[in-house]
Amino acid sequence: MPHTFTDPSGLSRYGWTDPLDQAFTEHYEAGLLPARISRVDRGLCSAITASGPVRATFAAPLGPDPLLTPCTGDWAALRPGTDPHLVALLPRHSAIVRSPASGSSHGQVLAANIDTVVIALSLAVPLDAAKLERLLALAWESGAQPVMVLTAAYAEAGALAPGVDVLVASVATDRHIDALAALLRGTTVLLGPSGAGKSSLGNALLGEERLATGAVRAQDGKGRHTTVRRELVPLPDGGVLIDTPGLRGISLHDAADGLEQVFAEIEHLAQACRFSDCAHDSEPGCAVQAAIRAGELPQRRLDSYRKLQRENAWAASRTDARLRDERARRQKAITSHLRATYKFRDQQP
């Protein structure tokens, strides 16, 4: 019997939709309940269900891919009872993934099922163009729509973010907070370095001092990690907000599409190069180098593009090597099992 979508408990406030409800049909039939993960703590998580918040256990990851470790924003199938347990994750429609600081070839998911990524940058330090480009690549690659919030009007910022709404906002004066709220849709994640004012911005959007905030050092504009874990909270006018700890290391993981978006002007210029495999160095007929000579494209921009492309290619090669090793190990295990099976069969009378 088909499941009819109803939401008397208000779970849709956290992003539950009819397509998600239909995708959950087999889990309903198994006696499981839908839940959205609001916080994760080493084998335990807080989750929102139709009957309210629960604490649940889970086995990490919930599938063959380490990227399927539950994270804030995931929709999950929950086995209810005195000891609630997450059984499976629903497919993600978007996710922010970076390479972890450990250097592992596995990606680290920062937030899942997001619709808007708010990148916050502080006035306390000069604009770091390279860091902004990394943040934008993460945001575009996630599948969500980036929005940039600045505490000062950086002329360069808009040029670094084609296709991105850029707002100059102030929490202290409420400047453009309403305009920012109007741009948000669905699930919004706050992204940026420590001390960028993400939690203060989040509190302004929430209309209450719910997220912890801390002081910023005047000499370098850096702040402490007042946000120590990712947490999902509902916004007063609909949708939900995910606050994240400040990002000190921003390493890309399989972000080729994101880089194309961030450096869209270089990608566009490259289409006019004489050679399709132009490296934009000293080749004749290079449209990219012509734009640099004409002052239309900064050399720094091309240098940053190349650097991030190399980093992304290196991360991809490590992932490919790991997958080859895993396939080889699986094949070796299968071969050993078959040999043992044949040996046992041959020994039978």
UniProtKB/TrEMBL annotation:
GTP binds at G192, P193, S194, G195, A196, G197, K198, S199, S200. Belongs to the TRAFAC class YlqF/YawG GTPase family. RsgA subfamily. It comes from Microtetraspora malaysiensis. Its EC number is 3.6.1.-. Residues 112-248 form the EngC GTPase domain. This is Small ribosomal subunit biogenesis GTPase RsgA. Binds 1 zinc ion per subunit. One of several proteins that assist in the late maturation steps of the functional core of the 30S ribosomal subunit. Helps release RbfA from mature subunits. May play a role in the assembly of ribosomal proteins into the subunit. Circularly permuted GTPase that catalyzes slow GTP hydrolysis, GTPase activity is stimulated by the 30S ribosomal subunit. It is found in: Cytoplasm.
